[in-house]
């Protein structure tokens, strides 16, 4: 097998992890949690160039991004849970990221301070002011090294633009604008302007009684700044071109796979609902995740995906139970590796799946303390679907549906992956 | 066509097997419908419910209702509460159990979320296999012959409150009365009332008496509970107060309306 992963780091978080994202260089890894906190990990510089331990990350910065709020008009709480984090491409020494909860997006600046000026004429070292009459000579203050301090400061707050819950944010390749999507609308923002946004998609019906479909995810194309896609709860993906019109309610392309009549059931629509959509790095393909599968679409072909991978087909006969306990509504994310040859997504029982598109291989791995001894290669797992259970296999009925891996991320260049269980963050790297 | 006075036939084993399957399917479908309606009702009190989830569940309810309309079993939902004299208090008990379950558990969707997969053992959940591979129109067997039998034995299935709810169900119960109100709440928000293509005028008539103002989807989904006009708690009150001769007379009116509706459905 070509999947040889070692556990490098394991972090236990204070709260349930709700999003995981590497920055564009892969040096930083951000997580958001249910308590509104963001924790950023940084790759160890010394080990970055050592192949065996390039997956070593340490806590770099922690800050409270969002606080719980109360909507007095509706008498409802607004959760502080971070739904998504997206990094901006780095322009200068500081790093910027967007983090969002259900209603408000914030732009955070993360900067390092490792020097401080010393030798002021009018101030003592501790900050007290000197009596000017005691100053007899002048000196030029100089920067002296100090212990590294990482500061996070909110630079912009983009609020009051979403009636419904924000599920996605995506930075445009022009690095000037970004989109935010809620259940029914998508807005376009300029990163500099907080008091205005443009509505570019609106699927709210005039009569809310006719509502049958919601937006589930949205993303900008990685290199075409005029193109974005959004997915729906009915299993469709719409590609829109902002040059065509100001309001992109009319799609340029509609991607939808015809339903398989032999698999039809009352749960067909629910399991077709797309929980995540991600463009490939190349921009030629996009990947969608629905409840049971991952699909790769060629942007040039709308009629059906070019590849379909079954994540946990054995759950198809359990859909009613999964509907009963609400697991059928779990929103799994998916991600590409750096060269778009492998895709990854999570499952239950702390399993995650990787599909190699080129070699046509796939593997099921487990992120758990018991199965991940540091420095030893992860053993592939197998789910027994019926009949005799072989040794080391786990039967479908023994799966723990409370242990779900919804969020995974892949380093943009290297084979380092971040996998989030409920409140553990695992970092695995490829064994070379 | 079949009327209530049809003598039950003696089925040979082949027919019995088919009919058993059909009855099982029908029960399971009803169970799914009930489960879905309850999920829709149990919204977060403090935090806005997940809209995607609500829409998907509502669509599921509509699919079931469409299929039930298609194979004619929908009319029996209306029949069931037409003859629900003795079952009124059973409904009340039923709703009371629901309310107390809500109160005990803080009123959230915890009924489902804390259950986990462990809570629904294979035996308890009847619906898995049949419901997971169902074909719609054309495939549904004729259920009319067995519906009476099926309704006689119908029980409301709510996995988490099953213990408290199960009672000696002599008669049809709940699904009739409780479901009617809840479905009215749900469907009042959809296009059935508004005559969307394919909607059944008989059903429109049925729900036309429903007060539409409360059933605004926005309101329902954002759970403004300040003055619920007909939540489960109020339902209990109205049940208690409608135990008298007045309910009988309204039943009589309902029955004649239902005959009229049946004529329409049957005629089409």
UniProtKB/TrEMBL annotation, chain A:
Gene3D superfamilies: YVTN repeat-like/Quinoprotein amine dehydrogenase (2.130.10.10)
One cellular component term from this protein's GO annotations in UniProt: protein phosphatase type 2A complex
Keyword Cytoplasm in annotation: no
Leader sequence residues: 1-19
UniProt keyword annotations, A-Z: Repeat, Signal, WD repeat
Keyword Zinc-finger: no
InterPro entries: PP2A_PR55, PP2A_PR55_CS, WD40/YVTN_repeat-like_dom_sf, WD40_repeat_dom_sf, WD40_rpt
Single GO molecular function: protein phosphatase regulator activity
Family: Belongs to the phosphatase 2A regulatory subunit B family.
Subunit note: PP2A consists of a common heterodimeric core enzyme, composed of a 36 kDa catalytic subunit (subunit C) and a 65 kDa constant regulatory subunit (PR65 or subunit A), that associates with a variety of regulatory subunits.
Name of protein: Serine/threonine-protein phosphatase 2A 55 kDa regulatory subunit B
Gene source species: Oncorhynchus tshawytscha
Gene: LOC112248440
Automatic annotation (TrEMBL), chain B:
Stored PROSITE patterns: SERTA (PS51053)
TM spans (from-to): none
Domain SERTA: 25-72
Superkingdom of this protein's organism: Eukaryota
Record-level GO cellular component terms: nucleus
Pfam families to which the protein is assigned, alphabetical: SERTA
Protein name according to UniProt: SERTA domain-containing protein
Organism, as annotated: Oncorhynchus tshawytscha (Chinook salmon)
Gene encoding the protein: CDCA4
